[in-house]
Amino acid sequence: MSETNSSMVDVATLYIVPTPIGNLADITQRALDVLANVDLIAAEDTRHTSRLLSHFSISTRTFALHDHNEQQKADFLIEKLQSGTSIALVSDAGTPLISDPGYHLVNRCRQAGVKVVPLPGPCAVITALSGAGLPSDRFSFEGFLPPKSKGRRDCFQALANDERTLIFYESPHRINDSLSDMLAVLGAERQVVLARELTKTYETIHGAPLGELIEWLAEDSNRVRGEMVVLVAGHRAQKEELSAESLRTLGLLVKELPLKKAAALTAEIHGAKKNALYKWGLENLG
Q1: β-pair type (204-209, 139-144)
Q2: Using CA atoms, how far apart are residues 57 and 218, in angstroms rounded to an integer?
Q3: Could you tell me which residue ranges the Tetrapyrrole methylase domain spans (predicted)?
Q4: Which of 20, 43, 73, 219 would give a disulfide with 26, using CB separation of 3.0 to 4.6 Å?
Q5: Helix or strand or coil: residue 242?
């Protein structure tokens, strides 16, 4: 592992700095060094960020950059960067740009040839996924669910057959309605994990078939408090059931024919899927 002088920052550079999603101890030393040494911090909410900076005795000047002014202020910040100013971009919690402001600024910086340095750090998506117990080799982060029922149902319908683990953000006041819409589209048996209050005192990660999860939430109003990450197991095609007759036929034919041809003939005789028969043969007759 190489070592660098983490207390130094480069001029004319935009740093993407993750901040804690709940537990202040999760901030990295590198993040603190960058925040303390840059010329300016572009923050989603300057009052919120000021409390964080005050906690760590950092006095760097802040500048408001949020969803409503980002496109207008991006040019101003790029001019500052091109003149040699070093800037850190932070959101209220977690990694900037992940369902938070920053995309337009980073995109414009890339177009303008301004150096962008992303720091690793807290991110609710990855934190929830790592503890959910759902497949993590392939996943899709879908951001916040639409605010209206029709939009949510359309979203779930479009993703119903996606085999990846699906990850959403949702607010406490919409979680019950969103899960009800999910139930209507994906069914009661789809495995869902709810991760709330991550890294905080009342952190909860609870998984169950969707129908049972909805019942579990209804048992205690405290379970719908706090910011939430909803993780949904990807679609799994039901294994096609092969009749006993077709398997007996395959077993007889494979004694005289190659498996591939035996599977094709069995499929024709019994109206079964050739690929399913071939796979079963590989697993059981090899």
Answers
A1: unpaired
A2: 43
A3: 13-213
A4: 20
A5: coil
Q: Distance (Å, rounded) from C-alpha 238 to C-alpha 244?
A: 18
CB-based burial label for 212 (10 Å; 0-12, 13-18, 19+): middle
Amino acid at 129: L
Q: pTM of the prediction? A: 0.81
**Cα dist from 154 to 92, 181, 236, whole Å:** 30, 10, 20
* Whole-number pLDDT of residue 240: 60
Alpha-carbon distance of 24 to 53, in angstroms, equals 11
Structure tokens at 76: 């101003």
Centre a 10 Å sphere on the Cβ of residue 146 and count the other Cβ atoms it contains: 15
Q: In this predicted structure, what is the pLDDT of residue 242?
A: 82
Task: Please tell me the total number of residues recorded for the chain in this structure.
Answer: 286
Residue type, 210: L
What does the alpha-carbon distance between residue 11 and residue 80 come to, in Å, rounded to a whole number?
Answer: 10
CATH 3.40.1010.10 fits 13-122, yes or no: yes
Closest to 142 in 3D by CA, of 129, 215, 225, 110: 129
As averages over each run of 10 residues, the pLDDT of the chain (286 residues) reads 62 98 97 98 97 98 95 95 98 97 96 98 98 98 97 96 96 97 94 98 97 97 95 82 86 93 93 90 83
CB 119 within 8 A of CB 97: no
Q: What are phi and psi of 8, to 5 degrees?
A: -95, 145
Structural domain boundaries in the chain: 13-122, 125-232, 244-284
Structure tokens at 204: 């909860």
How far apart are alpha carbons 90 and 251 in whole angstroms? 64
Q: Are 43 and 19 in contact (CB under 8 A)?
A: no
- Residue by residue, what is the 3-state secondary structure of 167-232? EEEECCCCHHHHHHHHHHHHCCCCEEEEEECCCCCCCEEEEEEHHHHHHHHHCCHHHHCCCEEEEE
Q: Cβ-count burial of 251 within 10 angstroms (0-12 exposed, 13-18 middle, 19+ buried)?
A: middle
The angle at the Cα of 198, spanning 30 to 209, to the nearest 5 degrees, equals 140
